[in-house]
Inverse folding.
């Protein structure tokens, strides 16, 4: 066992002395979490709203003050109907709420269950479709608040009523980061030994090469655990993601995913012979499908059937799904058992294939 | 203990259509320092990779310290010390860290075999904290040799250990090999430098995947039984073709700063110089020389 520990030590030294990689590996998760958490956001936040009020009745004033008081909107004042177009075009407002002149009558009719024209019109700047849809949805829910008999179906956005994007991105980034660090870095570090010729010396020794490979994975696993901790802490205390589920479950699913990513890295290292190839395979075969097909950015339900089928073999899909359920919905572990078992079987298959493919000769 | 350290029989290896090794056979006796001499592309590295079990032969068989390189490759890996052609240590680890790692790799304590490497390690010990990547070529080789010896192998396989190393370090390196030989380690060493052949007990000359001949360095030279002259003068390039056309010259080839000419018996050097002077070559110097290994190599290569 002394031998094994000295392999781990040697690998740790490699990582510690490659300060650039080390810095990237440790800072990347933090930067990405903060970037997605604050800068890139599709949530309803600071939507500039202006109103057109042809006839300011008591009910209209109430509705307007509800908009003014809402923290997610910035109230931009009242306009004349002729100014709408110009205001939206110049970007002074993202949304204009036009109240009907006979707002009270239409509302009363609706309340009585009689057919009537809609009392309010929403005009949105849809140059950014994400903000427009989210904004329209949220505006609607604010305006119809407490309106008896309103014809629109009552919508409750559970778990994430403000549609905070952090809730969506944190699991996604976790799915991405661990693959990046575990799979790409491990595969590159194994392939580096092939490329520089040290693998030749390692192979011509009594040690089974696979033990050296496992020793290689341990420091990367440790590094990823560090990242897991920093991501969870940032998500909880900076982005205020609720972590409604048990932290233990989140961690155990994540640890499984780390092992899977390491196995993926080992697998890549058995195919690639140079560091560049390893990087390309990782980037093209893993990163792209992962971002596109994991459900991190584009909902899987909206994809054509064939892509939905392909997404089933993307490990990140199941991991992100499980983490979303655990973090945001707060379901018990039993409810992510499916995802967990799929990840387990993927890990087993990957390790099996990688070990079978791993060659203890040069060809 | 087996008498032969390495036994190679009709070993053959193809890379696609290219024949890297063509039915190569030779034996290295226990305690022998055996040299593989040949230019790049002679198949030396392929042979090393076959003997270290990194490659599987396409034909023939070989044993290292009695263990078959295919059937018993794990045993081979335990017993050999191997130094590949290119520097194969970790440049980001220090001298001491590299050595400690290779000791652990072979499951030995550094102290238990320290006596074997001590004469070599003492030379690089002042730099033990330095990163291996920052060592000079000669020191890198010494460190690599220490790492290959750390588990007291019975057979040492050194693939071009002196390539890219300065002349002084090369000579020192061969002194170290001679010392290791005294300690009973059998060695197979390859080199493209013909002048290093004399440091070996026996040598095999090889070219394009084949072995041209195996003998002691003296024995190899003794096989060269024709008169040989060294030739120099002005306009060396034109001189070469003029000499080749001259009567009594069987062959002429460039040899360092001079040309070497193999001549027929009864060759008259004075007449040769006169003939060339008529063709406008002045200041021609010609003198008989003792053939070296390279002359034998050139000759055998042409008769292939």
């Amino acid at each position: 066992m002394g031998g094994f520990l000295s392999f781990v030590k040697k690998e740790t030294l490699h990582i510690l002395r490659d300060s650039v990689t080390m810095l990237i590996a440790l800072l990347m998760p933090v930067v990405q979490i903060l970037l997605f958490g604050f800068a890139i956001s599709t949530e309803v936040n600071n939507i500039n709203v202006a109103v057109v009020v042809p006839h300011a009745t008591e009910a209209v004033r109430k509705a307007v003050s509800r908009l003014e008081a809402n923290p997610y909107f910035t109230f931009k004042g009242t306009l004349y109907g002729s100014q709408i177009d110009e205001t939206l075009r110049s970007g002074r407002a993202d949304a204009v709420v036009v109240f009907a002149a006979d707002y009270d009558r239409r509302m009363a009719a609706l309340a009585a269950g009689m057919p009537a024209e809609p009392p309010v019109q929403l005009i949105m700047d849809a140059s950014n479709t994400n903000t427009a849809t989210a904004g329209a949805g949220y505006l609607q829910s604010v305006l119809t608040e407490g309106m008896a008999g309103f014809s629109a179906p009552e919508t409750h956005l559970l778990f994430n009523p403000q549609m905070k994007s952090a809730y969506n991105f944190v699991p996604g980034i976790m799915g991405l980061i661990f693959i990046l660090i575990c799979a790409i870095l491990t595969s590159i570090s194994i392939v580096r030994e092939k490329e520089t010729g040290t693998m030749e010396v390692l192979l011509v020794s009594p040690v089974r090469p696979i033990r050296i490979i496992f020793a290689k994975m341990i420091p990367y696993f440790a590094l990823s655990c560090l990242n897991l901790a920093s991501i969870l802490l940032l998500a909880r205390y900076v982005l205020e993601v609720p972590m409604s589920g048990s932290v233990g479950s989140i961690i155990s699913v994540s640890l499984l995913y780390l092992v899977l990513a390491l196995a993926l890295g080992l697998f890549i290292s058995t195919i690639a012979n140079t560091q560049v190839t390893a990087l390309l395979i990782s980037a093209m075969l893993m990163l792209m499908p992962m971002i596109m097909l994991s459900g991190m950015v584009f909902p899987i339900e909206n994809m054509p059937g064939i892509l939905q089928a392909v997404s089933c073999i993307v490990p990140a899909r199941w991991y992100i799904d499980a983490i979303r359920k655990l973090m945001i919905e707060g379901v018990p572990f039993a409810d992510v058992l499916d995802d967990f078992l799929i990840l387990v079987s993927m890990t087993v298959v990957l390790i099996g294939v990688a070990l079978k493919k791993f060659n203890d000769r040069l060809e | 203990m087996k008498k032969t350290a390495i036994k190679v029989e009709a070993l053959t290896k193809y890379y696609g259509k290219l024949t890297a090794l063509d039915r190569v056979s030779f034996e290295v006796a226990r305690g022998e320092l055996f040299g593989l001499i040949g230019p790049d592309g002679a198949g030396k590295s392929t042979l090393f990779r076959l003997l270290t079990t990194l490659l599987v032969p396409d034909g023939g068989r070989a044993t290292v310290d009695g263990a078959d390189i295919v059937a018993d490759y794990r045993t081979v890996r335990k017993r050999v010390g191997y130094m590949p052609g290119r520097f194969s240590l970790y440049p980001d680890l220090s001298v001491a860290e590299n050595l400690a790692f290779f000791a652990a790799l072979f499951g030995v304590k550094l102290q238990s075999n320290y006596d074997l490497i001590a004469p070599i390690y003492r030379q690089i010990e002042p730099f033990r904290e330095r990163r291996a990547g920052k060592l000079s070529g000669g020191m890198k080789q010494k460190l690599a040799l220490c790492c290959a010896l750390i588990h007291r192998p019975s057979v040492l396989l050194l693939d071009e250990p002196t390539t890219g190393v300065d002349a002084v370090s090369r000579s020192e390196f061969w002194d170290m090999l001679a010392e290791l030989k005294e300690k009973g380690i059998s060695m197979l060493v390859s080199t493209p430098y013909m002048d290093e052949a004399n440091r070996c007990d026996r040598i095999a000359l090889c070219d394009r995947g084949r072995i041209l001949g195996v003998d002691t360095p003296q024995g190899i030279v003794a096989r060269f039984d024709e008169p040989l002259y060294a030739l120099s003068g002005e306009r060396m390039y034109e001189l070469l073709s003029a000499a080749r056309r001259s009567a009594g010259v069987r062959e002429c080839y460039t040899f360092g700063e001079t040309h070497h000419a193999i001549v027929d018996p009864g060759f008259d050097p004075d007449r040769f110089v006169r003939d060339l002077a008529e063709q406008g070559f002045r200041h021609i110097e010609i003198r008989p020389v003792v053939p070296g290994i390279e002359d034998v190599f050139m000759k055998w290569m042409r008769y292939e």
About this structure: Chain B is about 35% helix and 30% strand.
